[in-house]
Amino acid sequence: MNNNYFTENTNFYGSTSPKELLMEYGSPLYVYNEKILRQRCREMADLVTYPNFKANFSIKANSNIELLKIVHSEGLYADAMSPGEIYVLLKAGFKPEEIFYVSNNVSEEEMKFAIERGIITSVDSLSQLRQFGRLNPGGKVAIRFNPGIGAGHHEKVVTGGKKTKFGINPEYIDEVKSILKEYSLKLVGVNQHIGSLFMEPESYIESTKYILGIAEQFEDLDFIDFGGGFGIPYRKQEGQQRLDLAYLGEKLDDIMDKWTDKYGKKVFFKTEPGRYIVAECGVLLGTVYSVKQNNGICFVGTDIGFNVLIRPAMYDSHHDIEVYKNASATAKEYKTVTVVGNICESGDIIAKDRLLPQLEEGDIIGVMDAGAYGYSMSSNYNNRLRPAEVLIKENGTAVLIRRRDTLEDLLRNYEIK
Ligand code: LLP
Predict the structure, then answer these.
(1) 111-168: pLDDT as tens digits
(2) Domain 5-31+280-411 class?
(3) Is the whole-model pTM more than 0.85?
(4) What is the rounded CA–CA span in Å between residue 292 and residue 345?
(5) Which CATH class is domain 34-279?
(6) Where are the domains of the chain?
(7) Which residue's CA lies nearest to atom 22 of ligand 1?
């Protein structure tokens, strides 16, 4: 298969090219495609036909304000995990009632931040429910339960089941009820999140039955939130299939219809997709600066360190790599290489033992599906500058949506005496 098939097929770079983009905005560079972002928003918004349904974009995956504005214009609501995320969402134009604060172990100040702005907050421990009650007696609250079932691409991102810090276990429902009563709180919603990245719909479907079983133990709920975790095919170059959304949506519709008939109220149902919305609209471009042979391994050295994209180093995640050369390499010029970054740790690996068109100094590579948990998890480790972010608009032109860090930015918070 042509190594550049994904970006060619989608006309990802519009009227520009990787080379032009790096010349204009520097390397490395996050590039997002508006058309793909809108398409993914629509797929999530139209997941089911049940009328009272909303997809809440989980902005931890990518909180660039320009992307948030696009997501908002597609009619999605949003989830926030911190006051910082709430702040950015409000700046992007989301109204308080369009934001759901899914808190975890937060201070009184952080909880107050949401309460004062009229943002519905979910708590996920008895301690935090009491704290909420003290701060906002008589208020509306949501509770995150542990669905007892987990899923995910790595144990670090499984958030349901027996080994996770998240959610209240259903065995504490009686205590939950007595705290709600003690502080005259109204439970308006229940939520869950089983984990990040499932490609088979079954675990998600199972978990919805579980949370619905919990929900029916409470009267007069306004909403039930099934959580996120919708996976994307990171191995497109190997022909990996997409998550079957049609099947998943059909099953969810059936479950929601039956449940609301039984409950006697057409509650609102929500999901919390993060990755699905933004992963595929983002490519991380970088430049090759060295190619060397060390003890039988061919290392391709680039400027994409794990400060820029941490997923491969942190979770051994796979990202397809495209190679942009002046002339397209033919199959016999392919070579198995390990692509690394410029951070002083040997775990600074982007792609291990990967068969790629032969690379030379000056070539450009594209790390695919980098729009989710890419920039949002980037850092200044090694005092490196975080890259710029560029959007390829629907008309094919590129606009800068966040500038690259400068050296002065590195000193911004110091109190230099
Ligand atoms: N809702 C809650 C409560 C969450 O904790 C998360 C993700 C989401 C929704 C969105 O999950 P998604 O649809 O994106 O899978 N950094 C990891 C993923 C961590 C996910 C954390 N929670 C990665 O790069 O794979």
Answers:
(1) 999 999 999 999 999 999 999 999 999 999 999 998 877 777 788 777 777 778 889 9
(2) mainly beta
(3) yes
(4) 17
(5) alpha beta
(6) 5-31+280-411, 34-279
(7) 196
